[in-house]
Specification:
alpha/beta, 8-stranded parallel beta barrel, TIM Barrel, two-stranded antiparallel ribbon
Amino acid sequence: MNTKKPFETAVVGGIEVKNRIFRSATGEAFATEGKTNQVIYDMYEKLCQGKIGLISMGYFSFSKTDHKSGNVLQFNTDAVTSLKNLTDMVHQYDTKIIAQLNHASTQLFVPPEGHAYGPSGYIDPASTIPSTPFSTEQIHNLIKEFGEAASLAKSSGFDGVQLHAAHGYLLSKFLSPTFNKRTDEYGGDTQKNMQIVVDILNEIKTICGNDYPVWIKLNSSDFELEGKGLTEDLFLETAEALSEKGIDAIEVSGGTLSGFHVFSRSIKHVAYHLESAKKLTDKLKASVILVGGIREIDTIDAILSETKIDAVSLSRSLIREPNLVKRWMDGDRSKAKCVACNGCFNFSGVRCFFDLTKAEQEEQRPMMKMMQSKN
């Protein structure tokens, strides 16, 4: 009989955690020249004080072919000391932390200087930026860069890494038959489309050791019009294959900025990738984590007790209430205060819309309305 409970210790994706409620990776846009700072340190300490089981930190940029902005966290040798201070603090609270590795590709919000690379040639439907196809040699170099970033993550004290292969970023586009039109070893069918992910996984395991946890965030569907992009069937096929290849955990998400659903929907949607995640648990060895529209502890209780899903992760609710898990543990089981307005996605730093000044709210409204229009 399935007896999983939210506030129990468990091993998820090769990591022992104190509970099954995680913070999903959130690009906070608070870094200083790519490095962590006191604002980020304090933010993560509040999450730890709030009794969160595991934090996925990021995303982190690292590739020479990516376009890095100073407020996005970056992996390089200069960042290790400050990141080690942060992971040491997190571990003092018996919380675990992994680093999310990402490449933005053409999904940029400012015009790039030079080429913006993608799997093939296309105009990005979210940014309208044209892509320059990676050469095969560049892909091989990129795979090595992922391995080097994971090595730096391990040196910085992270308990594992997560590959961001969702939401329209680079690896997501490689997995999509809409954007991946390659005819070499890295495109042409489902197996070839995922080959870059398999090669990255193998590179990280070779460098960091087979026991070092490697997770992945995948779209259950891109929700593109006319059934294009990564569909649920392709997601299930891809996830099952990656599990067989040794991925340790799959966080099930979905949506892109160009689909009819974005990755963060309005409050009327609840646990919106649940059915896809349930289908996945019948197919693989890797741990399955569900994200998206989870705001009530009763919902979490039901998901964990009635399915094979191993854990849930939250983002927006923890931006509003970093102490949410502790509140639930202390007996206040009322739903999260987050109203899912998407006003927290802020290029000046991710903060709850209701914590902004009136002037800041007005400046933020266009982004909020754009995100809401996809729901």
